[in-house]
Design brief:
By secondary structure, this protein is an alpha+beta fold. It contains 3 helices and 3 strands; from the N terminus they run ααββαβ.
């Protein structure tokens, strides 16, 4: 009788393990996916910050987009994905509200706004179907410090 009880306990443990292991694996992979989401959020924000630093000293669109994309290589962000505009500080929510000419002294006081959007998709199909794609956007707003725009002025300073 003692032997029979031990066999039943081992079988019961095996069944419990078979029921719990898929849930455990789903939780572990979910933690992995959340980590990837946090990484994407921070990378997009860092890329926007670097693009913004470039935009406040060099208003050349290609330079700003390239600088931001270089800091988001791991996300696969292309320069064309980076959005750049200049806004009046009194109406910072209105896109393109700064009517100053880029590269002219009138650009001082405008806000350089750089946005880096990224669509995150979970690596796990189960979690991906539950939450769907999530758009993560890094955005910064810095006041313009220096007016420079190529080819009007060559050798614009690099943001530091």
């Amino acid at each position: 009788m003692i032997r029979r009880g031990r066999r039943a306990e081992r079988g019961q443990a095996l069944v419990e393990f078979a029921l719990i292991i898929p849930l455990f694996i789903l939780i572990v992979v979910g933690i992995f996916d959340v980590g990837r989401l946090v990484y994407a959020y921070h990378t997009a924000n860092n890329a926007a910050r670097e693009g913004g630093r470039q935009a406040i000293v060099d208003q050349t669109l290609d330079h700003v987009q390239l600088r931001a994309a270089e800091h988001a290589v791991a996300l696969g962000i292309q320069p064309a994905d980076v959005l750049v505009d200049y806004r009046d500080p009194t109406t910072p929510e209105v896109e393109g509200s700064c009517d100053a000419e880029l590269g002219a002294d009138s650009i001082y006081g405008c806000l350089a706004v750089v946005r880096v959007p990224y669509t995150y998709e979970a690596a796990t199909p189960i979690i991906g179907s539950l939450i769907g794609p999530i758009t993560v956007t890094g955005e910064v707003r810095f006041p313009v410090d220096f007016n420079c725009r190529e080819p009007d002025k060559l050798q614009c300073p690099v943001g530091s």
